Amino acid sequence: MAKSIFTKLSRIALLNIEVYSAGVQTEREVPQAVLDVLSEKGYPTHNLEPLDCSLVPYGKLDILITLSSEARDQCPYHINHKRREHWVLEEVKDLTDLRALRDLRDSIEKSIKEFLKISSA
Asked: Could you tell me the end-to-end alpha-carbon distance of the chain, in angstroms, rounded to an integer?
């Protein structure tokens, strides 16, 4: 979810940012309910694939944002990181719960807009 939202909002802010979004325990594919919830707000869903956090090129990153305590603890620090943040977001346990997925999408969107200093108007 985060990659799709960050990618679209960074383009709105006229930023060309390479975004990686990874999980500690990845699924084989992005659940359809997640794709549906992203599509509701026009977020791109093509080519979204789960990525294990061990595959992120940490040495290339300027900014690292983690969304779970597990990710915060497992993502290594690197001297290249100019900024590192941890956002506390409620994890959705039931991926068929559309309301919870929408709430998560909206929380991620709000956090990214604040980070990129995009107004919510």
From this structure: 22
